[in-house]
Each structure stands twice: as structure tokens, then as C-alpha cells.
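On clarity, I found the account of how folds are encoded harder to follow than it need be. Since the whole study asks how a given chain folds, the encoding of that fold should be made plain. For the editor and my fellow referees, an illustration may be useful. An entry of this sort, consisting of the sequence and the corresponding C-alpha cells, reads as follows:

:::
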Amino acid sequence: MPLARWRWLALLWLALVLLVGVHQVRFWLHAPIESDVLALLPEDAHDPALAQATRRIADASARRIVVLLGTPDAASTQRAVEAFRSSLRRSDEAHTLPLVENTDLSGWFEASRDFFQPWRDRLLTPDQRDALRTRAIEDWSSDALSALYSPLGAPRLTDWQTDPLNLWSAWWQARAAGSGLQLDADGLVQDEGQVWAVLQFDTRGSAFRLDGEPIIRAALDRAVAMARTAVPALRELRTGVPLYAEAAAVQANREINIIGWGSLAAVLLLVWLAFRSLRPIALVALSLIVGVACALSVTAWVFGTVHLLTLVFGASLVGVAEDYGIHWFASRQAHPTQARWPLLRGLLPGLSLALGTSALAYLALGLAPFPGLRQMAVFSVVGLTAAFLTVICWFPWLDRTTPVPTRFSTVLSAGLASWPRLRLTPISVIAGLLLAVVTIAGLARLKPNDDLRSLQALPADLVAQQGEISRVLGLPSPAQFYLVRGADAQTVLQRETALTQKLVALADTGRIRGYRAISDWLPTVQQQEADAALSAAVEVPVLARLSAQIEQPLQRAEFASRPLTLEAWLASQASLPLRHLWLGAVGDEVASVVMVDGLAGQAALASLKSLAAGVEGVRWVDRTAEYSALLGHYRHLMSGLLLVGLALVALTLAVRYRRAFWRAAVPTVLAAIFTLAVLGWLGVPLQLFNVLALLLLVGMGIDYGIFLLEHRGDASAWLAVCVGAASTWLSFGLLALSATPALRAFGLTLLLGIGLVWLLSLLFRPGDEESSPVLEPDPESLP
């Protein structure tokens, strides 16, 4: 390529990098970061209703924090609440509080009672229906007359004439469990000797912050400390998605610093030892910064948001992207008299092939329909490509001084000649057989584990508090629910009713605490008409009988002439606690969700699943089990893809290196097998992320064999391989320190694999006496 074209290429790349710089400023002002681990997993594209249900349930609590303050008596609890709120108000006045107390349910009962009042005659419980059908009019009349004249009768929600049989109070008592608001008159919950106040807060903006500061936790801790000063016996519990998100952000900040800055420090230290000059350090750092910035901008542009684990994973990219710059400076140091442009032309085939194999391995991550993995794949491919373009476009212009050999590089380069190569001898055969036995035994010990819960690192204190809050309030699990579908709303409500009749029986056995269903609040039109006729059939003669007894005319209250509709209920405040359970139109159907409170172990899950089998249009959904099965499915799929990838890489190597291709391919294959064996001996379970790490190993490990074949006998290639392998090994070794199990499994696999493939590549390298199938570039054809 003429020199003028290289100049224009460098300027074009500079313009693109400047645009990325502008985007980076805008990106970090808004930081659209996704921290939910489940966002890594695929949605149910084949089942839109299920995907919508999962999203709706998640959205209902995405910004909500629940705090319980408990003391032995109601008065102490109220004092603690006042002190707690006082502290939060101070934080709010100081503009440091990202929370606002949610008061949506204040006045909910009064508004709901007024809303349902016109349809009181058609809202009955199953027990009330049985009583109205079987009990004598005389008995109803006697009870009604006693309630009329007795000042100490049962509690009522209306005046006597509006509800002479007092059906309204019983209906509301039956609804209490379904509303999730099991509060007394003071808004408190009593449980096992504790009187709890339930406070709900919504976050202002995102709980995700990359500054490493737990803002929400600190504000709540200060408020609890003040409340405990007022009431020393105070117990406090808290839960909510924002708390987990903030904890994940704090952890991510720590890990990005350790992995990202640790990797960068390790790379720069190795570059300094090898070249003892600030110029190589500055230029290698420049290629890494450009690579990561371009990767982040393109990922945000393609996906709209960037996942937290993509950032943590991307921090390890530093250990791979520096290879191109290191090879440039190693070649410059070994060939100080060669012109820069011919030197670049000689490096381009090997560097391009290394980039291609690494990009193929990263892109293989994106073949699985996991949004998080696709982000990681795009991030990594773009980052490597940007670092590669930075080296070939800018380094020949910016690197105008010849690196001087250092003692470190001289000793390391000289070590290539003394490093042994594998030869077929009796000792090597015996050692190989022993190694094969140990490897087979390790592979036999390797056990798969696809449980989704093994991939999440949730703070233990938050998990424990969430469990106790769920027990006290009977909160439903967002991961297990029933999905009910039908041609129209009435069909869905009918099927819900059939399901809830079975759930009542299950609750009576103690396997569940209760359930939440729209049909409990909104019966079908058919049921409403039947209940209206049934209540009228009893109330009218009761009032007539009492009119004769007390010699005063008694008229039945007027009620709505039309049934209560779904649209009216959804538009009212009465639907607020359960509104998210109605999914509405999904394709040609409509759907709703029935949630279950207080699951009692695995036996309850089995019973709940069996209930759905007998009701048409009802499906039991266990997201944890389904995601775990999906992880297992893709582990098998990606294992097959790993073999296909190995075959494609071997074919690519064979095209360039002919019969010598095996020297680059075999070390990677053996390293992958030995890594699995070591995981087996260590007792580490085989997961999807181990397989994905092996896919990545194929792309990166092949590079070492490529450079040793491309520049056989060249000490600079050996120096570049050693420095590059060491920095990559350190980068992914630090990834193994991540508190996220998925990343830890990924990092541990690469920690073992990279070390093994580096060692095996040296053992299988070609001898100096072997002829190279690669044609050297003609310096005369270059500018």
C-alpha cells in the first residue's frame, strides 16, 4: 500500500476515535447500565405471554424497596418509624437521598370500598354462597334483627339497611390475604411477638452507580441508627431490587478496579521490563484505551444499554488486546535497522490471522441467544479490532525511535533456544501414558451443574432479610407463578376461578400461605349475575319479614344494574395492588398471572405444578428451573460448537501452514482437555461458562502457535508470545477472583487453559531446521 494511503487511513481512524471520545462523554453522563443477572438470559421469544409476564412482574418491583421496623409493642414501633423518617428527611434536605416514600396505597381501602359499593350484591365468597343457598330465611332474619338492635354486633363496613346480612365485611376479610396488605387498624403487622411497620420507598433514578458508593444503604443505615437510638429494641429488615442493584454496582466498581487496573498495571509492567521505555508503554496503553472506548460505544449503540458483567468482563480484554502492540515493539527491538513500513507488512499476516481467530472465538459467544453474552461478544470483537487498527494505523507514525534491547528481553529471547521441544522418546511415551490416565480420571470426576442459582452471588444478609420479610408479609415469589390464557377476559377469569378453587385446598394443608388472583376481586359476569340473584333471593324476603315485625317499611338498597367490568376495575385505585397481574392482549389471546404466597419447600412446588395440568389454559411457570434447563441445553449446544470451531480454525491454519498446521492446533486442543481434567480434580462443576471460556481459549491459544509458526526461529516472536501470554494469563487470572460465580468459572478455566496452551505451544513449536511454508514479504515492494 502506498505511503499516502497509510496516511489517509491513519487520519480516518483518528476521526472515528474522536467521534468515540465525544460519545464517551455523553455515555458516562447518563451511564445506561443494566445490573440484573437475569438480563443475561434469553427471553421466551416463542412464548410472548411468558416473556411479558416475567417482564411485568419484574417491572412491578424494579424500583421498590420495602423496610420493616419491628418492636415488641405498637407504640414503640410508631416512635421508631418517626425517628426513621426524620433521618430520611434530613438526607433528603441535604440532597443525598435517592429515595422517596411510596404512598400510593394510602387511602386505598377507603377508595376501594367506595368503588366496590355499587356492586356489593354480586360480590360473595364461596362460604356465603353455600350459606345463602342452604340457610333458612328465619335464621337470616333473626341474625339481621339482632344486628339491628345490638350495639355490640359484628363489625360493619356500611349502615345496617345497606347490608342487612352483613355480607360485605366477610367478603373484605376474605380479600385481605389476597391484597398483600395484612395490616391492622394502625397499619401495623403482628408476627411472633413483634409489631412491624411496613414502609415502601421508590428510587429516584438508577440505583446503579459506578463510583463505588452505597448511597441507598448508607441512608437507610443512618435512619436505622437514629430509630434505634429512640427504640433500642428495634429490629429492621429490608429488601428490594434497588438494594441488590446497588450492592452489585459496588462490587462491580471494586472488581473493575482490581481486574481492569490490575490487568493494565501488569501489562504496562511487562512492557516496561521488556523495552525499558515510556514510548512503548504509552502507545500500548493508547491502543488499549482506544479499544475499550470503541467497544463500550459500539455496545451501547447496538444494545441501548451495557450490562454490568460486560464491563467486568471487558476489563479482562486488556490482557488480549495488548498483544498487537507488544509484537510491534518486539519486532522493532529485534530488527532495529529494518524500516517501519516493511516491518509492518511482515507482521500483518500473523497479526491479522491472530485477530481473525480471536474474533471468531468471541463471536461464538454471541451465537447463544443470551443478551449478556452477545454484549460481551460485540464488546470484545470491537475492542480487539480497534486495538489492532490503532497499532497498524498509528504505530508506524508515532514510533519513530528504535527500542533498545533490555536485559529482560535479551534473557527471555535467548531462552527460546534452550527450551525443550517434544520428541518421540521412551520417556515421553511413558509420561504421555501417565498423563492420559490422570486426565481420564479427572474427566470422569467432572460433573455438570446448570442450576441458575449457582451463577448468582447475592449478598447473604439481603437474602436472609428477604426471606424473613417474605415470611412475615407472605410475599409471593416472582420466579414461580401461574400463567392463565384465554380467548377473552371472561374465559381467563373462569379459568382463574377453577385454579383458585384448587389453591384454596392447598392452602388449607399449609403448603402455601395464599394466592393473589384478579378473579378474587373481579368475578366473571356469569358469577356476578348468579350472586346478585342469590343475594336478592335472601335479602328481599328477610327485609319483608323484618318490615312486618318492626312495622316499618324497609327497602333494599339500590345496586348497579350492570356487572362490574375489567376496564372499570383496572381504571380505579382499587386495582392498584394487583394491576400488574393483568397482562392484557398477547397475540390472539389475553392473559393474566396468578401468584402464590408463602411456598413451603420443594414439595409445594411439585403440588403446584400438578394443579395446572387439570385446568385448560393454565401453565405453571418456574423460571428458576426453566432457566437452569436452558443453561444445560446451551451447554450441550456450545460444546458441539466448540468442536465445530476447532475444526474451522484447524482448516484455516491448514490453508496457510499446510502440513505444519497441527503445531498450532494440537496445543490448544490438549490444553482444553487438560483444563477440564484439572477442573474435575478440583471438584469444580462444569457449567455453560466453562464451555464458553474454552471457546475463547481456542481463539486466543491458537495465537501463540501462529506467532511461533509465522516467525519461526525469530527470538522477537518468542519475546512477544511470552509477554503477551503472561499479560493475558494475569488478566484472566484476576477475573477468577470475581465474586460473580459465572465470571469466576470463566476466569478459572482461562487461567488454567492459557497457561497450558502457552507451555504446550513451546513444546510443539517447529525446529529451526524445518522449512517455512510462509513466503516472506518482499521489502522492495513496500514504500
